[in-house]
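To assess whether the prediction recovers the assembly geometry, we first specified each molecular entity separately, as shown.
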Amino acid sequence: MKSEPDAFSIDDLRACPKGTDHWDGIRNYQARNFMRDEMKKGDLVFFYHSSCDVPGVAGIMKVVRESYPDFTALDPESRYFDPKSDPANPRWYMVDVKFERKFSHVVSLSELRERRSLKNMQLLQKGNRLSIMPVDRREWDTILKMTETK
DNA sequence: GCCAACGTTGGC
DNA sequence: GCCAACGTTGGC
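The predicted structure of the complete assembly is given in tokenized form:
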């Protein structure tokens, strides 16, 4: 899951009560579908810092609550308000995530690109702009190892 | 700040 | 259903 650290970083998540927060503001259908349909309680998730000095994987969090309607879509005061969202049939969903761990160094996007075995990662595909996407187990393990070798 | 690559919107 | 215009993402 990506976030711009200027807006919400892994340190911000850690600072939340119980290290837990809801992942609001997702307004892309594909990303929503991953949250709504694929993410299960207990799943581990990489926290990716985007649009910053060193974009890359900053740490790990865990899904602690499965998807439920994103209430910010219904709040006219919210920057994520969606006038087309219907309370009776919510369009947008979110999950709750909990801080697990912050890496001693960010596994940078450029490091990820250097790894042959990560070549097919969805994150690294041309034109990819999704803010939430699946990571397969091999990719997960490879990235974890990269945190230990530097 | 630039720009490629999307996704969305709305007229037709 | 097509497609131009527009808005957004995100690396550089």
